[in-house]
Amino acid sequence: MAWFKRKEKGITTSTQEKKDTPKGLWYKSPTGKIVDAKELEKNFYVSPEDGYHVRIGSNEYFEILFDDNKYKELDAKLESKDPLKFEDTKKYPERLKAAQEKTKLKDAVRTAVGKSKGNDLVIACMDFSFIGGSMGSVVGEKIARAADYSLKKKIPFMIISKSGGARMMEAALSLMQLAKTSVKLAQLADAGIPYISLCTDPTTGGTTASFAMLGDINISEPGALIGFAGPRIVRDTTGKELPEGFQTSEFLLEHGFLDFITHRNELKNRVNQYIDLVLNQPLRA
Amino acid sequence: MEYLEFELPIKELEDQLQKCQIIGTESEVDVTETCKQIEKKLLATKKDIYKNLTPWQRVQMSRHPNRPYTLDYIKALCGESFLELHGDRTFKDDKAMIGGLGKIGDQSFMFIGQQKGYNTKTRQYRNFGMANPEGYRKALRLMKSAEKFGIPVVTLLDTPGAYPGLEAEERGQGEAIARNILEMTRLKVPIITIVIGEGASGGALGIGVGDKVLMLENTWYSVISPESCSSILWRSWEYKEQAADALKLTATDMKKLKIVDEIIKEPLGGAHQDREKTFATVSAAILKTFEELKNLSPKDLVDQRMGKYANMGVYKG
């Protein structure tokens, strides 16, 4: 007779009672490395073993770039309307509502001003989780107003792009946001205020065809996808196999469209180093 | 002349009319009355079809193979005075983007536009009107050159999009378009933009930031083509008609949204039905628009243009 025996047959623990690993405790990188979520946060959301830069949102970027995570959000209340009464498989207002509930965000960009290494910096940071970080009227208007703030107060300006491109549900109005944001960047340029463009994974379409490529410096993180046409469209149109590393930040650096690539733990230092150098002011430690 | 599917009732009546006229000349039968009847019906049918085009039918009209293209307009407008200029001075000459100087009356203009081909061979040569980065850089070079000499710029938009190719990406398609858009917002000479065919997304806007933007009646302008929109949002190519409706891409919609300033009327049945008349209307529109802009100082011009684009967008809060 076996020295142990199940008293009752079968598994009797109900599903509710099962001890499951709480969500968000572990993160698995694309190469299969498992990271403790706390470790990941401490490491700037970069997987320590393989250096994979996890996609993060405005909350995390503000935390990384602003001193003590202190900042004042600008125009936080702007929301999208539905000027075209756009409907595909879903009505646009329903899509917006669903995205707002899911992400707790108002739209695909947040803008803020705060201190970075002691000096003021205005940052517009896109959130990919909100309808693919797509640019509609709200994204255009918030970026424009943030640039105006920079212009008025003479504060360096930074946009963190993370977007699939223009928002289809606002059609031509979305397209015109390319021109609108460019107007503001031209004004900043004429006033001699530095503009830093950080292209993160992914930066494609209308974003690339406007502010993402128009920085006094364009910089990126390792391994980010950056391009005008998405890789699938390029493959389908040309019928060619795409070379390895096509449209990665390393590829763009090699072809002359980025100034440098920085690990996220060096981002704050590099950005402020550039600002100090270009404005010919003392380097901050 | 080629016919689109919805134009087939017109073709039928035109064939009937032709037969009727042949009978009239070849036999003794008096067919004057019958021919007149057919003509009357033909006109009524045309009016009925062309006055009630759906957005998707407008898209088809904008792609009509007999439609005049950029060089047709420029040659008709400027005649012998047109001097085509080539190259971006960096990489090559893009055949999908053409440009050059020409005169309408006494006034010189810098013309820039995407160019499509009219048969298989020339379509390939022109890359179907899809420019590469060097095309946008050539356009910018010509605009800067116009600015230097105080020559107004006229851009003619007709493209299914910027070319989504491997080399185009390597050479920075996004950067090239972005740079053009930014520089156009502050160019110190008047820019008149006319959509003469397809105005597809960034590829069109890359030469489309104007003080005044005009659209021919049977053209479209949007952030994406109805086909691609259908494939992304409906995950199928079958919903292009719904997508065309949803995108509000017609000249009338664009005027309502205040993205374009004026609609240029086309002859009944489209620009290709009476090319001379189309060219004359476009020529007059350019001159009239230039009259409105020519006395503005460079500063006022740029301020006004920047103000116009800075105001685009609909939001709340």
Q: What can you see in these coordinates?
A:
- By secondary structure, chain A is α/β, with parallel strands linked by helices.
- Chain A is built from eight helices and eleven strands.
- Chain A has helices at residues 37-42, 58-65, 92-103, 137-153, 171-190, 231-238, 249-254, 267-278, and strands spanning 26-28, 34-36, 71-74, 79-80, 109-116, 119-126, 157-163, 195-204, 217-220, 226-227, 260-261.
- Chain A is globular, with a radius of gyration of 22 Å.
- In chain A, 46% of the residues are buried.
- Chain B has two domains: 15-52; 58-310, 2-enoyl-CoA Hydratase, Chain A, domain 1.
- In chain B, 49% of the residues lie in helices and 15% in strands.
- Chain B has helices at residues 8-26, 32-51, 55-62, 70-78, 120-125, 133-149, 166-170, 173-185, 201-205, 226-233, 240-247, 251-256, 275-293, 298-310, and strands spanning 83-84, 97-104, 107-114, 153-159, 191-200, 212-216, 220-222, 262-264, 315-316.
- In chain B, strands 1, 2, 3, 4, 5, 6, 7 and 8 form an eight-stranded mixed β-sheet that branches.
- Chain B is globular, with a radius of gyration of 21 Å.
- At the A-B interface, strand 4, helix 4, helix 5 and helix 6 of A face helix 7, helix 8, helix 9, helix 10 and helix 11 of B.
- Strand 4 of chain A pairs antiparallel with strand 9 (315-316) of chain B.
